[in-house]
Amino acid sequence: MSRILCRVLTSAHTHRNLEAAAAHLCSAASPPASLCPGSSPRTTMEPKLYRSPAGVRGMTSLDKEAFAQTITVPALRVPIRVLNKVIKSLKKSTIQRPGMPRVVPDTEDGGAFRLILLDPNRISSASSFSEAEAEALRSFEVPEELHSHELQLTYDNLKSEEVLEAVLPPGQDVTSAFSRVGHIAHMNLRDHQLLYKSLIGQVIMDKNPGITCVVNKLNIIDSTYRNFKMEVLAGEENMVAKLKENGVTYEFDFSRVYWNSRLSTEHQRVVQLVTRGDTVFDVFAGVGPFAIPAARVGAKVLANDLNPESYRWLQHNCKLNKVESKVRTFDLDGRAFIQGPVKQELPALLKGKGSVHVVMNLPALALEFLDAFRGLLHQEAPCDENLPTVHCYGFSREDDPDTDVVKRASRSLGFPLENRCSVHFVRNVAPNKDMMCVRFTIPKEVLFSSSDDQTEPSEEPAPKRQKCEETESI
């Protein structure tokens, strides 16, 4: 910010009190000579309007009053009769701060003028106006002379990242990002931020209307039910969220089921491949982000989840969205679901006209479940045209994640999928960790076998506790 105020000094039209304030801050900040008055400012650095008071550094309990300070900004004196037109012409150059007006009274006049506050990041002298802005001012007969205005900046005028940057030790990661789940803000704090977790939670809640609860995900996830431990940083301890995704309403207890708002685009991508009359088997359905939209487009859906809470909320959401007649729900292990309901339904479906989709969204383990399709059916394939399409998700830390997930899927199926599948990058969930979706038609050589080739289903991998499936900074 010192650099900005130094730049303001170069304006021949600013008042002396603006110059004095800028000179004081320039001296306090001890900038390089190139940033002081009379020299060319470095344009490679992003100037800041707000310079945090030194006393807030290291604060762990939020004191909003400590963030208040007075700054000086450039202003334009404008007659009231053309005020709205000038504001519209200068919309890119006026000051933009939360809760701060762009127009203030002109105390030196009897009421015929107002001051339009300008962004010092953009306007430091009359020559800073663009050609179009300057032309507009001339047409409205508004002098381009800049005035100074003292402005009181408070906590309410600051962005969350500005507050956190002021509080946390210099040089450390500052993040104000979070995943929103209804009224809940879900964060992944790093170790160095934990000392400030209560303050961070309060700031996030203050700066984001509608957020009434802020939680931090801890570093352990239950790989059986996919629900992670969390702690409430600020606000109410109400974990039952209600939200809309792609036009569908969901309700669930966020602390007891798996939900990731960042998969909204992926849910939509897969559902767009489904048409009326198709059948969808959702092996790890969660609370229904694939199953319910698929039912809404006219597909027949069989949805399963091992987590009793997910199963309960899945049923609730089917009723909430009036698709309970189109969705059959199950509370089974994924392999048992494939070897049970899927096996029972497939023979008739393979003779029908509608496409069959199998969605397997459990990226930590889903690839290991593909072996459940080996010899699933005894009869010979009636044709090759209506074999099920699988959408199977997996994490990969390899340099070539596409090749990695295809190799692992092939190994689990016992059949090479190279050149017989497509791989879609879903998202990066952590450094060197990608979420991928491999899509393929189940080969008839895998799906069909004689009774002599049929093997008993293998045991599901023992439930284990592992590091969080997704440890990205949200």
Taken in chain order, the helices and strands follow as: HHEHEEHEHEEHEEEEHEHEHEHEEHEEHE
Q: What is the chains' assembly state?
A: single chain
Can you give the mean pLDDT?
A: 84
* Shape label: elongated
Roughly how many Å is the radius of gyration? 30 Å
Q: Mind describing the biggest β-sheet? A: 7 strands, mixed
* Beta-strand share of residues: 15-25%
Q: What low-confidence regions span 5 or more consecutive residues with pLDDT below 50?
A: 1-47, 451-474
Give the strand order of the largest sheet, numbering strands 1, 2, ... along the chain.
13-12-11-14-15-17-16
Query: How many E strands?
Result: 18
Global structural class: alpha/beta
- Helicity, in percent? 10-25%
Alpha carbon gap, first and last residue: 28 Å
Task: Count up the helices.
Answer: 12
What report would you give on this structure?
The protein has 474 residues and is of the alpha/beta class. Helix content is 25%, strand content 24%. It is built from twelve helices and 18 strands. The protein has helices at 2-9, 16-29, 83-89, 131-139, 160-167, 197-207, 264-271, 291-296, 308-320, 334-350, 401-413, 444-447; strands at residues 69-79, 103-105, 113-117, 146-153, 179-181, 184-187, 213-222, 228-235, 240-245, 248-253, 279-282, 300-304, 327-330, 356-360, 389-396, 421-430, 433-441, 465-467. A seven-stranded mixed sheet has the order 13-12-11-14-15-17-16, sandwiched between helices. Strands 5, 6, 7, 8 and 18 form a five-stranded mixed sheet that branches. Strand 5 and strand 6 form a beta hairpin. Helix 1 (2-9) runs antiparallel to helix 2 (16-29). The longest helix is centred in the C-terminal third of the chain and has 17 residues, at 334-350. It starts with a helix and ends in a 7-residue tail after the last strand. Mean pLDDT is 84; it is low at 1-47 and 451-474.
